Amino acid sequence: MQKFSKWLSYVLVAVIASCVTLFLCTCLGVPGSTKLQQLENLILDRYIGEAERDAMEDAAAEAMVNAIGDRWSFYMTAAEYQDYQEQMANAYVGVGVTISVREDGHGFDVMQVTKNGPAQEAGVQAGDIITGIDGKVVSQIGTDAAREMIRGEAGTQVKLTVVRGEDTHTLTVTRRSIQMPVATATLLPDRIGLVTIENFDSRCAEETTAAIEDLRKQGAEALIFDVRYNPGGYVDELVKVLDYLLPEGDLFRSEDYKGRTEVRKSDADHLDMPMAVLVNGSSYSAAEFFAAALKEYDAAMIVGEPTTGKGYFQQTYRLSDGSAVNLSVGKYYTPKGVSLADVGGLIPDMGEKLNEEMDAKLYADILDPAEDPHIQAAANALKSK
Fold first, then answer.
1. Whole-angstrom distance between the N-terminal and C-terminal Cα of the chain?
2. Which residue range forms the structural domain that includes residue 329?
3. Does 14 score more than 50 pLDDT?
4. What domain count does the chain have?
5. Is the CB of residue 119 less than 8 Å from the CB of residue 157?
6. DSSP secondary structure, 284-326, as one string
7. At residue 168, does pLDDT exceed 90?
8. Listing from the earlier edge strand, what are the strands of the sheet with 192-197?
9. In a domain, 219, yes or no
């Protein structure tokens, strides 16, 4: 009888375990559901505290993309994807500042101020510290909430409390639609034209060629292209610029995840002028391949600091909830078939590393060309040609 009772208890435990497993499979995750789906259902059904489905799914999606170990692939929430689309369009509604959270959490450092933008017109300067928005202290409301307060609809106003040195100012800024300049032209001494290309996103080819033509009309006889802190952009924009500059031949090679290859070519028309390209460690993707193509055609020298060496290209996929993933789906190569990832990036022909102060001014777009060692090195080399 004792043995039978012991046997019966084993049977009951097994039955209960099977029922619990069946319940978890059917109620907390349908049969065949993934581990992540089961875990999400378990948390939402059993967790004693409060859990937000969207927050969990965003965190899980970000972790999945991070787990592949590719620095160029990344996940974006729905709000981040909207910002990303504005960035790629080089147009957005806002005040016209690039900000960075301070290490102590007490406000934002103003890194860049858009020329002729609403923030500049209101008196905001690069180097300012934004400590308050509409009378609320950034450190008290949190940086995420503060960022959202700065954003808003066109025509509305926001009051920014900024610290500049020992002084504090309250500046009223009217938000509006801002079209970011992609390429700007500056005529330097000795008939050398400087073309600064911010990125290779929308309007890059149009504005770059317009800047070059403007400089030629002013009498420029040589060109310096500045793609330092240029994060890259669209291949189509890159190819259009290279086609304008270079003679007939291969411009760009790519191979996607299915092994399909493509070679983009230029026609015979080209620009016959001495040229130089400025790069640094934050010249990525299309910016690197722009410099590499000009170098391989012996059309330009490279001046500045070594680049990173980005050899993958990405495709953005929108997900069902408005979020998106920017996923590396292929490799690209220089006109001669070189992968910059394999060689570790571009090594300049000349140039020195900028000190911290100069580099900060360069990023803020306030470094005078006359004080810029890279521009001066390129100009001196071009003058000797």
1. 106
2. 181-383
3. no
4. 3
5. no
6. -THHHHHHHHHHHTTSEEEEES------EEEEEEE-TTS-EEE
7. yes
8. 183-188, 192-197, 222-226, 275-279, 300-304
9. yes
Mean pLDDT of 204-218: 97
Alpha carbon distance 28, 60 (integer Å): 18
Q: Of 148, 178, 208, which one is at a domain's C-terminal end?
A: 178
| Between residues 8 and 226, the one the model is more confident about | 226
- Does residue 360 share a domain with residue 221? yes
According to DSSP, the β-strands at 275-279 and 300-304 are: parallel
CA pseudo-torsion sign 207, 182, 202, 277? positive
Q: What percent of the chain has pLDDT over 90?
A: 72
What pLDDT score does 20 carry?
41
The residues that bridge with 160 in the sheet, in sequence order, are 133, 171
CATH of the domain at 260: 3.90.226.10
Classify residue 176 by burial, with Cβ atoms within 10 Å: 0-12, 13-18, 19+. middle
Closest C-alpha to 88, from 282, 233, 208: 233
Distance CA 126, CA 110 (A): 5
Q: pLDDT digits over 43-84, tens only?
A: 999 999 999 999 999 999 999 999 999 999 999 999 889 889
Looking at every residue in the chain, the average pLDDT score rounds to 89
CA distances from 101 to 28, 75, 139 (A): 40, 21, 10
